[in-house]
Amino acid sequence: MEITSAEFIISNTQVSKCPMPDKPEFAFIGRSNVGKSSLINMLTQRKNLAKTSSTPGKTQTINHFLINQKWYLVDLPGYGYATVSKTTKEGWSQMITSYFTQRENVYCTFILIDSRLEPQKKDIDFINWLGGLGIPIALVLTKIDKIKQSELARSRKNFETRLLKDWEELPPIFITSAEKKTGRDHLLNFIEEASKK
Ligand code: GTP
Ligand code: MG
Fold this sequence. Notes:
Number of domains: 1
Helix content: 25-40%
Structural class: alpha/beta
Radius of gyration: 16 Å
CATH topology: Rossmann fold
CATH class: Alpha Beta
CATH superfamily: P-loop containing nucleotide triphosphate hydrolases
Number of helices: 5
Bound molecules: guanosine-5'-triphosphate, magnesium ion
CATH architecture: 3-Layer(aba) Sandwich
Shape: globular
Strand content: 15-25%
Order of helices and strands: EEHEEHEHEHEH
């Protein structure tokens, strides 16, 4: 799929103020600093469409981007950012819970996982929670430019083994590097197919 237009629409802390849910929507979530905003920029080939930072906790709101006038990419704040206050965490949790329980046009949620790490409890809990809500998910292993092929294979296997303890089937898994633009075609093809359903 060619991306011919990518436009920032709105930033929100309230789900009720998000755009009309009249188009397929694809959400990006994962631990803080895992590379959600960078991946959106890589997919759309726009350097600063989504705001990125080397410091965790950059994205704090629900951000809608309209792609090709047809569907939305949504950049969400990260979970598991240790230094934010309890109140901020509760606000986050409320915002994310409302987003996933109320937003009716989410066709698929991409859960980003740092390819260098062992399965983290926060990721597994989140996957199990979303899966339990019946929301289609796909996993994206990020920052693969930072590890060797052999380490990536091992890391992926570990993750799959962990998931199969709780689930009978594995979700689609994508391998990406925003730095090297790896995985762009695969992800965009998947989105294109999914948005037709
Ligand atoms: P929050 O909004 O804080 O939750 O973070 P995020 O998940 O949106 O991460 P962001 O895209 O801001 O990236 C965090 C840091 O990781 C930045 O310094 C990026 O440059 C870096 N980064 C993101 N993707 C990649 C990648 O594929 N490879 C490498 N080497 N660095 C990456
Ligand atoms: Mg971000």
